[in-house]
Amino acid sequence: MLTELAALCVAALLTLSAAAVVLPANPRSSALLYGATSLPSLGAALIGLAQLAGGQASGLVLPLGLPWLGAHLRLDALAAFFLLVIGIGGAAASLYAIGYGRDEPEPGRTLPFFPGFIGAMLLVVLADDAFTFLMSWEVMSLLSWALVLTRHREDQTRSAATLYLTMAAAGTMSLLLAFGLLAGSGAYAFETIRATPHSPLIATAILGLMLVGAGSKAGLAPLHLWLPEAHPAAPSHVSALMSGVMTKVAVYGFLRVVFDLAGPLPWWASAAVILIGAGTAVLGILNALMADDSKRALAYSTIENIGVIFAALGLALAFRANGMEAAAALALSAALFHIFNHMAFKSLLFMGAGAVLHATGTRALDRLGGLIHRMPVTSALTLIGVTAISALPPLNGFASEWLVFQSVLKSPDLPQPVLQIIVPAAGGLLALAAALAAAAFVRLYGLAFLGRPRSPEAETAHEVDRFMLTAMGALAALCVIAGIVPALVLDRLAPAAELLTTARLPLQSGQPWLTLVPIAEARSTYNPLLVFAFIAVTGWAAAWAAHRFGSRALRRGPAWDCGFPNADPATQYGAGSFAQPLRRVLGPVLLRASEEVEMPPPGDSRPARHRVTSHDVIRETLYQPLTAAVWRIATVANRLQFLTIRRYLSLVMGALVGLLLVLALWQ
Fold this sequence. Notes:
Blueprint: H1 2-22, H2 27-52, E1 58-62, E2 71-75, H3 77-100, H4 114-126, H5 130-148, H6 155-182, H7 190-195, H8 200-218, H9 227-233, H10 236-261, H11 267-290, H12 294-321, H13 325-360, H14 371-374, H15 376-389, H16 396-408, H17 417-449, H18 456-459, H19 466-484, H20 486-501, H21 528-549, H22 575-591, E3 594-598, E4 609-613, H23 617-637, H24 645-666
Antiparallel strand pairs: 1-2, 3-4
Helix pairs in contact: 1-2, 1-4, 2-3, 2-4, 3-4, 3-10, 3-13, 3-19, 3-20, 4-5, 4-10, 5-6, 6-8, 6-9, 8-10, 9-10, 9-12, 10-12, 10-13, 11-12, 11-17, 12-13, 12-17, 13-15, 13-16, 13-19, 13-20, 15-17, 15-19, 16-19, 19-20
């Protein structure tokens, strides 16, 4: 029954996409369509929650797709969890878009693709055969590409869309090869593939292909380049969907294939996943700390969080390969919990960045500032998202990352010395990434909302409408609730973890005061309720004491401004100056950074300027030479369409002779 309802939600979303083609492109139609899109999205979330609460896995075959095969759909615990993630993210983005879309200059370039994009993501999760999975994956990629291309008249947008489409095509080709290895006997249905044994060599090859296919969509390094280009180019409600939700659909594809369909993997394969994940986390957050564009910084932060998730998944593979099912369930539960949390706080932050863009017209951090006075509700909700993504207690980001580190602390039980070295090293990289994340978001929030306005746009900003604020408020509440009572969330995730590891965490909601006890009470515990109570009571007591015993006299005086007589926004910390220490330490090594200092002579009151030019090492050393090689090959191959008949016949004859020679040598 639940599978049929989920299929109806997909059908409703696809129908809304078709209806958007004939609806007039005006604000009224835009609000109507976005509001209608939120309903099946919310329905999908409720279906996923009901399935996780104890529903039985069920399947459905539709008379679509390949002849004599049909489209197989199935709703199990893993699909239900991602249905919940997509549904919540899609419903919040749709509600937000009612307000955000009112000022879209060309709503017809977004409306026909937005509901279908959510529906395609739901269909990827429900697919139970290779053809339906790959078909819905490709539809998801094409619709998201069309959404990225919304502002197609801008050169930067066209460049970002081209890069995204290229990476998506390469990822789909890798997925196609992976399913070719999975369905070597000609089986398309997941049930048949799951029952077919695969050798460790084939399973490892499938893992490599999935790291490329799903990793390119999720944002794993070095396949991450499209994220900081495409996410800022897309409208903000689309950015929230792509970063908060679509990257999790890619993680679902990796989980479904590697953990469910491919079969057992050798232990050494997990080491590659752990190192790639940890390296991606550090690389992503370093770039986020250097970015001067608010949405670009958030896109790089998504790369960091994807790295954390894949590092946890690599730990789960390592534990599972050694028969440590309880530890594997812990690592997998941590990854799933962080998937849910990242959907909540990253969607919230992209919506906050969109609200700032809507109110000021700029994403440049050096042109913002002082918005806490002009956009008080947005600033408060964004502060919750910033606190959550910085992994500060008692919000949800801390709870999931704490569980990841609890998994790392189980590494001494692994029998392989290589893993006993690699896992703590990866844990150190994840700890570094967590510390840099806190610095990156102090920088982002401080530059955008604190201080004095740095531009006329920031000085005249205004609060956004109630639809945008309601969507952000719902996600902020989710961050707080999942952080204060994570035990309830983990218990709902237990069926999905058990499906892939045959084990689950102990019942967390049964512990006193909802304390998290992932391993044993004597080893590690965390009680977010007590932490929240301590922060609330001490904060209230400090405020009361300051009010009770402090002076009631109002004293005003000029703020100290670094020796300058007049308060000037130019003397505040900027995006570059905040990141300057890390640029100087790590820039020459990791970013090939070069410095340029402009120091005015004595007596000149102009502030000194410090400019740093950094380079994307991966783009310059890997992608640019590859792009140049492809362009040269394409230029040469382009001549083939201008040959004479005689030369075409000669090419055909040469190819035939070559194939006959290969066949003779083979025999």
